[in-house]
Amino acid sequence: MKGNSEPIIEVSGICKFFGAFQALNNVSFSVADGEKVVIIGPSGSGKSTVLRSINRLETIDRGRIVVHGMDVNDPETDICNVREEVGMVFQSFNLFPHKTVLENLMLAQLVVRRRNRTEAENVSMELLRKVGIEEKANSYPARLSGGQQQRVAIARSLAMNPKAILFDEPTSALDPEMIGEVLDVMKTLAREGMTMVVVTHEMGFAREVADRILFMDHGKVIEEGVPEHFFTDPSHERTKLFLSQIL
Amino acid sequence: MQDNSSLQKTIDIGEGAAIPLKSDKGLFTAWRIAFFGAIATCLYLAFFRPDEYMAIFRFIPDGIIVTFKVTVGSIILALIVGLIAGLGRISSNRLINGAASLYVEVIRGIPLLVQLFYIYYALGRFVKIPDMASAIIAMAICYGAYLGEVFRAGIQSIPKGQMEAALSLGMSRFQAMRHVILPQAFKVILPPVGNEFIALLKDSSLVSILAVSDLLRRGREYASETFSYFETYTVIALVYLILTLFFSKLIGIMEERLNEGK
Fold first, then answer.
1. Among the four given CATH numbers 1.10.3720.10, 1.10.260.40, 1.10.760.10, 1.10.10.10, the one describing domain B23-260
2. Is ipTM strictly over 0.85?
3. Which of A84, B51, B88, B230 falls between 20 and 30 A from A224, CA-CA?
4. Nearest Cβ partner of B168 from A57, A81, A96?
5. How far apart are CA B205 and CA B207, in angstroms?
6. What is the pTM of this model?
7. How far does the CA of residue B170 sit from the closest CA of chain A (Å)?
């Protein structure tokens, strides 16, 4: 673990309003190179909003987010550069239904990274092998199970060689029997040293993989700590209540 | 949960002819009766009533070609205008959005015939272009507004997650539109575009008011020389019907192919 180098993601004092509703209230944290941070909390607590702010799928109203030295909300920053470095995996997979699995992986390599076709194809096939789905390379996403689709989605974001990957409830849309295969891929990535920020309800995964856990409620980070401490001896009442409900 | 198979939504905007799909038995039968009936009637008139009708059939083919040119020219231009208007209508830039919305609102609020006159004579005042070209431009400006709404609806029917996924891979908005959103939207909008095409084919008869010798105008010219109004307009109506039904069938087939390919 190279936990103490320069942070890859630095979130400082961000606030976000949806109309009068305050979705984020002064959220700060940082993610070091190779670190795995898991964000948990009840629904509506702002965890997905935080994640989506990091690559500016949501804009923030106050505060600052710096990714790999780039100020995400600075008008001078080309947001595409930030997004090239930070992959994202969505709850609903969001594969491109008009393209085959292989084409899904190749598209951004071709148009964003400007790789040639052979190289893009080689990278793609290697990643499909890695997530155990190479035999589906020429299928369309609709022919795949949810678990397979999500593994393709992970491979698609890996194809850009990102510095970090954001996971927005990657297993919440899956049937129970498919959750394991996706978590396994994520665990492999974690072992290989990928920097990850994961919003999830999978407490087993959080406990096993996280270097640090953030607990959010009502748009605030209530508690932050290593898993052992977090699960066995949380300091806040709200955290205790949440854990007692979920475990 | 969101499922990719529910991605294909249909948008229902019908101004053209009813599209005869195999699944709609009644309409399918009606289409056959109308189409083959119209052809049979034409053949009957040409061969059993040649004195009155043969000359009409000889006179109007030039008009069919002009009608076809106006229709195809207008739909191509209208698709370009419509794509721009549709993209403008979903733009977050208030100026672009405002301009596109204003265009759509204004055009849709004025009868096509009035627009044709207006654009035709307005164009004629400032530039000298052939009658056919100004008719095509006028039709395209009008239909661009309707197609703009089709494009807007088609683009908006693509789930938001598609754009987000494309952007999060580092694509620009333009790249995401081009490689991810529009290819999917085209599938959705093909049926309503086909519908607009047929509506345009029918509305192209309005250009006969201008100095364009389309099918209807050829008919009028013939009738005013021979005073055989009833016979001429019978033929004109039958020919329009055959054209419209032919294209609605073609679009129906394309639509069914598309559904199979899902």
1. 1.10.3720.10
2. yes
3. A84
4. A57
5. 5
6. 0.83
7. 5
